[in-house]
Amino acid sequence: MTRATRRPALGRFAATLIATAALAACGGGGGNGDTPNPPAPQPQPLSVKLEKIGGYATGQFGVSAAEIPAYDATTQRLFVVNALAGKVDVLDLRVPANPVKIGEIDASGVLAGAEINSVAVHDGLVAVAIQAPVKTDAGRVALYRASDLTLLGSATVGALPDMITFAPDGKTVLLANEGEPSDDYQTDPEGSIAIVDVSDPAAPTVRIADFTAFNGQEATLRAQGVRIYGPGASAAQDFEPEYIAISADGKTAWATLQENNAMAKIDIASATVTNILPLGFKDHGAPGNEMDVADEDGLINIRSLPGVRGLYLPDAMASYAVGGQTYLVTANEGDARAWGEGNAAYWAGDASKGFVEEFRVKHLVHTGGFDRRAGDDLPPQLRTLGWGAQLNPTTFAYCGAVAGNPGACRNDDVLGRLNISWTMGYRTDALGNPVMFNAAGAEDPSGDRLMYDHLYSYGARSFSIWNGNGGLVWDSGAEFEKFFTSDECKLGSARNIPCKDFFNSGHDEGSAKDSRSDAKGPEPEGVALGQVNGHTLAFIGLERMGGVLVYDITDPTAPKRLDYLNSREDWTTADPGTVLATAGDLGPEGLVFIPANRSPDGTPLVVVGNEVSGTTAVYRLNVSGGQR
Predict the structure, then answer these.
(1) Where are the beta strands (DSSP E) in 83-227?
(2) pTM above 0.90, yes or no
(3) How many degrees, rounded to 5, is the angle at CA 324 between CA 318 and CA 326?
(4) How far apart are CA 213 and CA 196, in angstroms?
(5) Which of 408, 445, 544, 561 is geometrically suited to a Cys-Cys bond with 523, CB 3.0 to 4.6 A?
């Protein structure tokens, strides 16, 4: 098991927590405190192999024409968000091998110019999250009857509702109101969680769990590891809920705050955010956490990188229970704040016109300073901190850094191409102000250079399992990238293309081996969970490398990889959009698991929305073993 570095002083508590979780997972624990209960029967080993059996194609490439799928067993219909159209495509799934479009949900009647961002279904009731034409304005939730797509009711929620989900009882819907800023950062609405009573779909009632109680606590939260760094933003403005998971009893919800590298814990009954849980970082210098960070050498070079820390920055999240405890499964995509990228005034030096935190290491620590990138990709906010930056010669001695000079560390085949956040890692004083250094690398109050003790990269290239209080239970470490270099890993529906030939490929180009190593690697984004033959399975969608990984997470402390299927067929055509009919499935976004007892054909299925290829793929799970 690979562990990641988190907040200080976690050690003994974490070990106790994990041991306790393992005991619970095994059915342990004494009834009267003297004699342990006998262990519960354990499921037998499970074998799972995904098989693509069908799909639906919009014929649109690279424009997010298939994103989030949801399934209604009462009508055997799929509801798939088509972001290009701003609608939901409704597919007949009675024959899973041949989904057929039979209608669509258009929310423009609810809100003129609206776009649907997310969809969820519960026993014949369809709920959609609707973004306003101006994304910083309040959005809407709308409810439809699955059988005939009749609009039943709607209500106003927060700004940019980006994800929607039902509570287990089907009477409550929760929305993650992301509250992204405007592109020039002139308007920054507050993020929030909308809790909607839909017991009467014709008259939904909304309560808002907001973050205003955390305003004024920004310094404390930052000290705990929560990233609050938007220009002039309060905590409530800076928190941007991305995805929601709910406990089995429907009492507690958790929301990923992706850019903040944290989770929010929510009490549903009182519509209150009760805690902000920082997620810490992964030490890429630790054994088991290696990665490849060079994208232009065309080589696979997974190695230990002391001083580099990966921010989890999770996107999708799902929950499950073991031994009465809730566990949270996250896909650690990574996401940088990048607003104003298309604004020439911002790059010309007007810091009021945007905010971009992403920067390459080679430009950050160049001995020629920041101004050599002025007018190109130099964030003006970085320039206000200093003239240039250096690497800590002790931390980064392994790649040649010395006082005042990064040495070979900034070479393209070492750390130079890696995208990091310039907002973190430089040395600060007790008040959070930069400690300045001179050209010789000595601390100097009159110096004009920052000193980066650590470099923080985006995403952890993994999936993680957390407890309900944000404690890390397990992380897949470097397993994804290492698996893609193995002879076992094959691509294509026929599994006949070596993964290593297209390691860390991009999803919108051909012959792109290694092209994503400088960014977020395979980029895990989507996650869905399912119960099969007494086992809990996690399905992890990889946005860039593509495909779906299947893990058995029945024991949250010791997940096991069971399968990987990537149904992209063409890996060499420079523009896959020109061979869309045969390219296969590119860019998984959302996933939904359909258990056998709710499936149209009586077999367990996984449906994936692929935003790049604009396709909805239907996979069957061929299962053996696992019966108790």
Answers:
(1) 87-92, 100-105, 115-122, 125-131, 138-145, 151-159, 161-166, 172-177, 192-197, 205-210
(2) yes
(3) 25
(4) 21
(5) 544
3-state SS track over 69-80: EEEECCCCEEEE
DSSP H or E segment with residue 12: helix 11-25
Name the nearest CA neighbour of 580 among 57, 64, 54, 51: 57
Laid out side by side, the sheet with 325-331 consists of 317-322, 325-331, 463-467, 472-475
- Rounded Cα–Cα distance for residues 317 and 344 (Å): 36
Sequence-ordered alpha helix ranges (H) in 509-610: 580-583
Q: Where do we find the tokens 């309560």? A: 207
Nearest Cα to 527, choosing from 68, 29, 24?
68
Which stretches of 151-251 are assigned E, i.e. beta strand? 151-159, 161-166, 172-177, 192-197, 205-210, 241-246
Report the distance separating Cα 559 and Cα 571, nearest Å: 30
Per residue in 36-84, pLDDT (tens digit) is: 444 455 668 999 999 999 999 999 999 999 999 999 999 999 999 999 9
Sign of CA dihedral 51, 55, 60, 65: negative
Name the residue type at position 620: R
Taking the alpha carbons at both ends of the chain, their separation in whole angstroms is 25
Rounded distance between C-alpha atoms, residue 217 and residue 235, angstroms: 8
Q: Is the dihedral of CA 193, 183, 389, 431 positive or negative?
A: negative
Distance, in Å, from the CA atom of 244 to the CA atom of 240, rounded to the nearest integer, reads: 12
